[in-house]
Amino acid sequence: MLAYYIDHFSPFIVEFWNGFGIRWYGTAYVMAFFLGYWILCWFARHGYSELKEDKISDFIASTALFGVLLGGRLGYFLFYDPEGFLRNPLQFFQVWEGGMASHGGILGIVIFTFWYSRRHKVSWMGLGDNLVVAAPLGIFFGRCANFINGELYGRITHVSWAMQFPREITENPELAERAVDACVQINPALNNPDAIVTAAQTSEPVRAALAGILNPRYPSQLIEAVLEGLLLFVLLWLIRTRTRVAEGVTTGAFFVFYALFRILGEQFREPDAGVAFTLGLTRGQFLSLFMILFGLAFIANAVRRNRPAPRPA
Of 3, 162, 252, 267, whose CB count within 10 A is highest? Predict the structure, then answer.
């Protein structure tokens, strides 16, 4: 049997005591906001932005709170887990446990920036053209955090670079039973899936026991990090800084290319448990179709208006 790598990262960078510390997931968002701030400041200093540099810190902080966090969290429960929210509404605030929907975050940013542009009398499309260049880096860090947490893993495969994710046993009762039977022989306290997943982070015997139980899967989080993160960032950076398209075209390109990369990435990702397919598509692929239509409409409107995007003199 091929010795597949078992994802066994701790969700904590530093754990001060049981269940409390600095998590990779939260740090990913901090890094995303920091780089977003830096990129928007660069645009402002070099003449690409109508928004002045001294306004950017407030804009980024507000976008992060009301757009990304609120929109992403609402989108997750609305699109993927409405029953879970109805059972326990307070889990909405437990963001350290994951559960963010990128489609919801994007929708939240669209709504917030529209309000902000009206409130501060700046161009909505101009705000979007710069913000969407920074957004893929946030997606990149988020996907990397998903990989570290061992969540949103890929479909079963037997390619040589497949990986195994211990969190799988928390979503598969049959595998959970086999894992408990194997691990209680190592340590009687390992009598439930959550304890086994935690022990796998530090125990080689536990990982060895799981190696013969877990399915090999695509590391879809890393695939999506490259597609929706790094590749999308490079494309949008080139469009914004190396072409002379009308204001709003870069924003429309973000919607179209993000959706296309998401549809491709979902081919490697395990569909969310309990979420029904729509027209043979996963929920993420189905929602992406609307993003493509929205992006094309955005581009068509931008070309019709033909307003030059801010650029260096």
Answer: 252
Spell out the residues 6+ positions from residue 70 whose beta carbon is closer than 8 angstroms to its own. 108
**Does a structural domain hold residue 312?**
no
pLDDT in tens, 23-82: 998 899 899 999 999 999 999 999 999 999 999 999 999 998 888 888 888 888 887 777
- Tell me, yes or no, whether 310 lies in a domain: no
Q: What's the pTM?
A: 0.88
Bridge partners for 71 per DSSP: none
Number of domains, the chain:
2
Whether residue 271 contacts residue 277, with contact meaning beta carbons closer than 8 Å, is answered with yes
C-alpha atoms less than 13 angstroms from C-alpha of 25 in its C-beta half-sphere: 16
The H or E element containing residue 13 is strand 12-17
Residues 182 and 252 in one domain: no
CA distance 176 to 294: 42
